[in-house]
TrEMBL record:
The chain crosses the membrane at residues 24-45, 65-85, 120-143, 163-186. InterPro entries: DUF3611 (IPR022051). This is DUF3611 family protein. Pfam families: DUF3611. It comes from the Bacteria. Keywords: Membrane, Transmembrane, Transmembrane helix. It comes from Spirulina subsalsa FACHB-351.
Amino acid sequence: MKNTSPLTTPLPQKVLQVSADLRFAGLVGFWMQLVLGVISTVTVLFASSSFIDQTNTANTAGNEFGVFCAVCGLIALGIGIYFSWRYLAIAKLLRNPEANRRPNKADTIRMIRLGLMVNLIGMLLTIIGAEAIVGLVLAKSLANPPGQLNLDPNKLVNSIDLLVIQANTHTIAAHFGGIVASLLLLNRITR
């Protein structure tokens, strides 16, 4: 006769499916956000090093707010990466045969919603930074009439401006990936 205690009953199919969904979304979200986050961080560090260089301050005037928002977006992205990693940990916990050691549905949904909010806030901050930089680049380019050579460094679009735009774009894409993963998880778990 088989001795089955209520604590070690076989895992329900729904729990296995939720665990698989959390694992998949956690892996995709983690690696996508990590790769884009590293690229963005290196780009922002390179761009912000030009602000420290006092010889190039005229060329980067006005970029400080955009870089500040990019850094805030990267900090939020770091937190979002943690939440993706947390999804992997929850998926592993759900496969625990002891029912009392598994996280409950409400806690799992709360964790996913918190990760979603972090990515939404990070995306908002990064979009604000991108808008600031794009507005600055547009103002610089409009200050140069077609056919005239303007040698004023404050009115020239430079590579640092474009690097900050690229870093913000990568960060926005990373946050978008985290948002999509969280929304898919909420959709799958709450069904």
